[in-house]
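User: Is it possible to get a 3D structure for a protein together with its bound compound? The compound here is AFP. I've pasted both below.
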Amino acid sequence: MAAIAKPGSTRLQIDLRRHLRELEEDRDLTRLICEIADASKYIVNSIRTGDLGLAGTSNLYGEDQLALDVLSDRILRKRLSHSGVVASMLSEETAEILQISPDGKYSVAFDPLDGSSLVDVNLAVGTIVSIYEGSNLLQAGRNQVAAMYILYGPRTTLVYSTGRGVHEFNMNHLMEYTLTAENVQIQPSGKIYSPGGQRNLYTEGTEKYVRSLEENGYKLRYSGGFVPDINQVMMKGTGIFFYPHLRNNPQGKLRLLFELNPMAYLIEQAGGAASTGRKRILDLNPQSIDDRAPVFIGCKDDVKKAEEFVRQFG
Ligand code: AFP
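Assistant: Yes, that's possible. Here is the predicted structure of the complex:
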């Protein structure tokens, strides 16, 4: 196993494929992650030049799809189905698990363009990917073998883990991903919070928790995009994001298979934690592809504190 550099001593000009090879990662998984990275080059180009209007269709949740949602979904599905290593796949934009090949080694759940409603106001958005070995996508997130996100912001960055630390890559002028941070680590507690959902619908537990953060000088940082908000916690190494259970919606908003499982996997790999307020996200057993769950994710001690408030006050 190649020696992994200590935090802060990142080896530059290492591209994604070489990094995976140095980790002696499985060849098929390396191929899969690189195929997704290549697909993101077409997605970033579509965001910069594409149609910002509605597609005239709706997704699994009955939400209007943007032209960019449909295009990003098509780009990723085409890449994955031609990769030769995918058994089954599931997109947040389509309503069914697609069986691709019985010989495929991996299965993929993905949100092709999370936060797409932010593109027309020029805010950062992202692609989120969850990878399992085999063909079963309806299993607990702790069984993932890899997860990654691509952030389309002022820079285009890719963050991945195959269970051996979390690593960040930046897309350069040749549209290649080169290493910018290795073994990313999150501190035990933070100083920023990202509160999702309507505050007037917060339960007593969450409201008391938010007040305790404010009394301890935490700063509010919320973009409305899950990928940029989680990337802030990951790359600053501090903070907590939450989209909690609400008084009118105990399940919260975010989707377990497409959003919560992959981000929880990455945050835990970086030394953080992810909870519903009562249970570890990665231990949730999905009942159906459109499962949602409340989430508190980020610095370990801040998540633990949230759990204490939720358990005590609901
Ligand atoms: P869209 O994909 O509908 O823009 O939703 C984005 C998202 O799923 C996630 O990226 C955000 O964290 C969250 O929803 C924002 O939700 P609110 O709009 O309720 O704050």
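The first helix runs from residue 16 to 22. The mean pLDDT is 94.
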